[in-house]
Amino acid sequence: KNQVEQSPQSLIILEGKNCTLQCNYTVSPFSNLRWYKQDTGRGPVSLTIMTFSENTKSNGRYTATLDADTKQSSLHITASQLSDSASYICVVSDRGSTLGRLYFGRGTQLTVWP
Amino acid sequence: EPEVTQTPSHQVTQMGQEVILRCVPISNHLYFYWYRQILGQKVEFLVSFYNNEISEKSEIFDDQFSVERPDGSNFTLKIRSTKLEDSAMYFCASSERKNSYNEQFFGPGTRLTVL
Predict the structure, then answer these.
(1) What angle (nearest 5°) sits at the alpha carbon of residue A67, between those of residues A46 and A35?
(2) A96 touches chain B (CB under 8 A)
(3) Strand pairing partners for B19?
(4) Over the stretch B44-88, which tens digit does the pLDDT of each residue have?
(5) Exposed / middle / buried, residue A3 (Cβ in 10 Å: 0-12, 13-18, 19+)
């Protein structure tokens, strides 16, 4: 069964600190892995997308890694800001469907305190 | 920057009523999607749409649901007879073309409340 699991479920850090979020997946056949940021009551916004051949990708203070062998990914946030408070969702796309169906994790709820 | 828009932002309806959720995808995009997110749960795929027909649908997308692209800009999701469990946030997304990334851009969502 295609699944995406994320940890931790929630995380509180102080402004300026770094953090790392984890994602494990069983989606097969794998196409790509994305990290989205979702503010409360809003739609998900893409942070990074990685295909099978990419093992790291950065977008500003966000750095994602992918280990396709162990089916694990991480999202590292450096120098956190109050505006980073949101849910971070790991999403995996499969190659088995016509348009690459997306499978979502439950997200990690990040809270940044001043 | 172009974005996906959705209306209404919040829809309240009585159980058994029909609702239509509307989306305007990004103008040059060819692939369209609907997702839903029940409060506190993960986002779930409902349906994908390309070339005026459904490309794929999930087990959630039963006969009560339908999608349509009535003109060149709108993409709609219709729920024929709403149930309490249809209460959720519904997100529309669109993508430009199918490639290894097929990045999907999400709208802000419509919160559907069924009473």
Answers:
(1) 10
(2) no
(3) B79
(4) 999 999 989 999 999 999 999 999 998 878 999 999 999 999 999
(5) exposed
Q: How far apart are the first and last CA of chain B?
A: 37
Residue linked to tokens 């995380």: A11
Which residues in chain A touch residue B55, judged by CB atoms under 8 angstroms apart? 98-99
Nearest to A60 by CA among A83, A44, A76, A72: A76
Encoded amino acid at B103, one letter: E
Q: Is A93 on the interface with B (CB under 8 A)?
A: yes
What DSSP string runs through A31-50?
A: EEEEEEEE-TTS--EEEEEE
**Residue of higher predicted confidence among B102 and B61:** B61
Q: Per the structure block, which two tokens stand in for B8? A: 């209404």
Render the burial of A50-72: b for 16+ CB within 10 Å, e for the rest. Answer: bbeebeebeeeebbbbbebeebe
Q: Which residues contact B72 (CB under 8 A, 6 or more apart)?
A: none
**CA of B46 to nearest chain A CA: how many angstroms apart?**
10
